Every structure is written in structure tokens, then in C-alpha cells.
Amino acid sequence: xxxxxxxxxxxxxxxxxxxxxxxxxxxxxxxxxxxxxxxxxxxxxxxxxxxxxxxxxxxxxxxxxxxxxxxxxxxxxxxxxxxxxxxxxxxxxxxxxxxxxxxxxxxxxxxxxxxxxxxxxxxxxxxxxxxxxxxxxxxxxxxxxxxxxxxxxxxxxxxxxxxxxxxxxxxxxxxxxxxxxxxxxxxxxxxxxxxxxxxxxxxxxx
Length: 206
Hints:
The protein is α/β, with parallel strands linked by helices. It has a single domain (about 5-205), classed as Ribonuclease H-like superfamily/Ribonuclease H (Nucleotidyltransferase, domain 5), CATH 3.30.420. It is about 45% helix and about 25% strand. The protein contains eight helices and seven strands; from the N terminus they run βββααββαβααβααα. It has helices at about 45-50, 50-55, 70-95, 120, 125-145, 160-165, 170-180, 190-205; strands at about 5-15, 15-25, 30-40, 60, 60-65, 100-110, 150-155. The strands form two sheets. It has a five-stranded mixed beta sheet. A two-stranded antiparallel ribbon has the order 4-5. Strand 1 and strand 2 (about 15-25) form a beta hairpin. It is elongated, with a radius of gyration of 18 Å. It starts with a strand and ends with a helix.
């Protein structure tokens, strides 16, 4: 990566992501540029927030009447999800442009496996949550591709192991390095933001 290149680390949730943008300075020093929540849905639009819940007849944990065509609800919801995600990541890329060009990304992934058919997915609330996670990650990946950002996927359960192997630091040294930093934008700096920044650090170092 060039001196002005930025890398973003992303941890997904239903309807939003936790993002940490970093830059490697001369000599490999890590700078935390920006931490922020990025929405992947439209406000008050449940189809874009949780298309599989809507299709399966769930409002949170509450059972509600299911739609007549759940597949169409999912397709429509995911299209809106992708559009919202692209718009919000485009704004974020522009917002940090003064610090450099966003060129790399790290995305934490899960290990949940979907059932083989949509009917089986929608019959299980646990499966619905796996599907929602997959949908958000797919929307993020699509947005990053459209923005020309190179994406690396990292298993979230292996994050610290991968970091130790690739950065040549032990767990305590990594956590100490992150703990001694603070985002330049004065954004939140909780454990999740630190792990998002670590994910971006790995994407920048690959």
C-alpha cells in the first residue's frame, strides 16, 4: 500500500456495520483515522433492514403474518439493502478522502451454514439470523467492489490468531498497540472498534 492508502475493517450487524479506517505510516506505524457506524438499510424500512425476518413472518422475536411471496420480499429487500450500503459507503469514502484513498478492506465473516432450501431457512429463527448476516456481508462486498476497494475476508473467530501470525506480535502486544491509539475523528473506541481497526490493519498489511 502507498503512504496515502487507507484500509477499512468491517464488523457486520443486522442493518449496520462497525467500521474502523486505518493508515500505515512510514515505518509501518499504525494510525487510526476514523471509526464509525455505517447503516446498510434505509431508516424505518424493515425490508431493507431484515428481509429474511419479514419474509419469515417475524418482527423481532414476535410472529406476525408472513407475506404471500417471501422470495420476492427477500429479493426486493436485498436490492434496497445493496443500494443503501453503496450510498453510505460512498459517502464514507468521500468523507475520509482528506486522509488518503480507501483502497483495501477487511471483512469479518461468520461460520454459520444455511439450510439447503429457503423454506427451511425461514422455518428457523436461527437460520434467519445466519441469512441476515450473509446478506449484509454480501451487500458490503458488492459496495466495496463497486468502489474499487480490494476486499479480504477473515474468519472472526480466527482474527487474533491471524493477527499474531501476520503481524509478528503476540496477543498482548496487539491489544496494547490498539489500546494506545485513538481515532483521529474522535469516534468511538470500544473493543469492537479496536477489532474493526485490527481487521483493517491486516487488510493493509497483506
